[in-house]
Write a structure and sequence with these properties.
It is built from 13 helices and 3 strands, in the order H-H-H-H-H-H-H-E-E-E-H-H-H-H-H-H. The protein has 284 residues and is mainly alpha-helical. The chain has 2 domains: 3-136, no CATH class; 140-283, no CATH class. The model has no long low-confidence stretch (mean pLDDT 84).
Length: 284
């Protein structure tokens, strides 16, 4: 057995009780996990949920050497776990999926806080916070915000097209071009990719940014970045349809639109992060 796997085995054995408690909690909430995983499978916009738990585990493993033992357990963790359990019961009774899923994360965070203690938990809190990004946006919020964002994206895109000389007229969420009409559907509003991009932004901020203020700012900046990336997708599709052909917009650009959003958002994230790093060195 390699040295690495021996270290893993020793780590698991040393902390076997909290691992067993987490496993028992997950087993008792099997139905919550089952419905959550089904959402990850059925909706590509939440398929990143499969990566959230491995990333959280990696964060815990990466910070293991910064933890101090023995340490006094925290009663606040027990209180958080109890609140999560109550929320879970109420969420199941009301058939409110979002509440049950958030309550499950609260339970796991409470167990972690109780075992690690406050001092240690401050070093690994992000691993538990990151679990929230595996939870889909509540349907009531999604559908209330989708139409306004569709209209906003179509309005901005139309303005940009007119600025570069492309004849475009907007009618609601439909952009009319010569011999072609482009509908800004739900997927182009920016909300569908927002959770995944927020997860990416928070992970990048936690890993590379120093200073809580800049990290929070960079994470929250993923909201306008996600919207801008989707506007860029609509803009590129419209230009492609006008300059080349409608077939290009409906085939190639449509198929690569997800990658276009991801890489454009990633580029904006890296650029903004570099600017924040530069201002940090400038004013330090």
């Amino acid at each position: 057995m390699s040295t690495h796997w021996k270290a893993v085995k020793n780590h698991v054995f040393r902390h076997r009780y909290p691992y067993a408690l987490l496993a028992l909690t997950s087993l008792l909430n099997f139905h919550v996990w089952y419905d959550l995983i089904l959402d990850w499978i059925r909706d590509d916009n939440y398929s990143h949920g499969f990566l959230v738990i491995p990333v959280s585990i990696y964060i815990l493993w990466r910070r293991r050497k910064q933890l101090s033992w023995p340490i006094r357990p925290s009663r606040w963790g027990l209180a958080l776990a109890v609140i999560g359990s109550v929320g879970l019961v109420l969420g199941i009774a009301a058939e409110e999926f979002f509440v049950t899923r958030v309550s499950l994360v609260m339970q796991m965070s409470g167990i972690g806080l109780a075992y690690f203690g406050i001092a240690n938990f401050r070093r690994v809190w992000f691993a538990f916070f990151f679990l929230l990004f595996m939870i889909p946006v509540p349907a009531v919020i999604y559908y209330q915000a989708t139409l306004p964002m569709q209209l906003f994206s179509s309005k901005v895109t139309t303005t940009l097209l007119q600025v570069i000389g492309v004849p475009a007229v907007r009618q609601g969420n439909i952009i009319h071009l010569p011999e072609y009409s482009l509908e800004v559907i739900e997927a182009c509003s920016g909300l569908r990719s927002l959770v995944a991009l927020l997860a990416l932004g928070s992970l990048y901020s936690w890993s590379y940014m120093s200073g809580r203020g800049r990290a929070v700012f960079l994470t929250l900046a993923m909201v306008p970045i996600a919207i801008s990336a989707n506007i860029f997708r609509v803009f590129v599709t419209a230009v492609g349809a006008y300059v080349v052909s409608r077939d290009l917009a409906e085939t190639f650009l449509h198929e690569v639109s997800g990658l276009l959003v991801f890489f454009s958002a990633l580029a904006m994230l890296v650029i903004l992060g570099a600017i924040l790093k530069w201002t940090e060195r400038l004013f330090s």
